[in-house]
Amino acid sequence: MRSVRLRMLLGAAGLLLAALPALAQYPPPPPPPPGGPYGSGPGPGPYYHHRGESDQFVEFRLWAGEFVPDFHGDFWDNNFRNFTGSRNDFQDVIGGGDFIFHFDRHNALMVSASYYTSNGLESYRAFLDQDNNPIRHRTTLDITAGTVGYVLFPAGTHAPVIPYLGAGVGVYGWRLHENGDFVDFGQGNSIFTSSNSDSGAAFGYFFVAGLEVPVTRHVALLVDGRYTKAHANLGGDFGGFGRLELSGGQIVGGVAFHL
Asked: Is 177 helix (H, G, I), strand (E, B) or coil?
């Protein structure tokens, strides 16, 4: 399976290639006449950005898609070595939203929040119980992110297709939980039931590339890809298990509103 980093780079390249027609239209055409883009009736036109004479505006965006975790590092490497399952089992839905403050046609500040949760049922690869049944437990990971970043709109916000690139930093709140049956190798390989958890917050950073397609003066459709890099050191019930990798890529689609 290709790495998530490669997928995200290819996805970003595809988005930028799709945006070339919009880039070729810079500088933008003049604003539509007051009666609409064709001079009659209140047509929406492509000027999603436009409010009076100012290029400053605010967007609110909602999106959802798939998060594809890297899940390397101490905890995940040991987990997938000793138990059934794989990183693919933790590919799951992520949802979130953005506030984007446009300073002008090309530069903006983006404040975002998102939530991801996934779980997998795992069993020991090398051990069975006394009845030759799998010894199973469920592993759950939740990640709640709050980020802030700079966004560049290379074609400006006047284009009928609006590409963007950005990067930023964030705080990633996480909770790891395991519940089920385990083997106690220090007590004659006896089987016991346990519930283990740890939680915390990690600092990280992200990159984003995407497109917006205005459909009215106040609404646009969007698609973007993001890659996040973050990790935490485990403690609590997982003390001694090393580093918990939280990194991964996502592809999402959604809708943006010009406020």
From this structure: strand
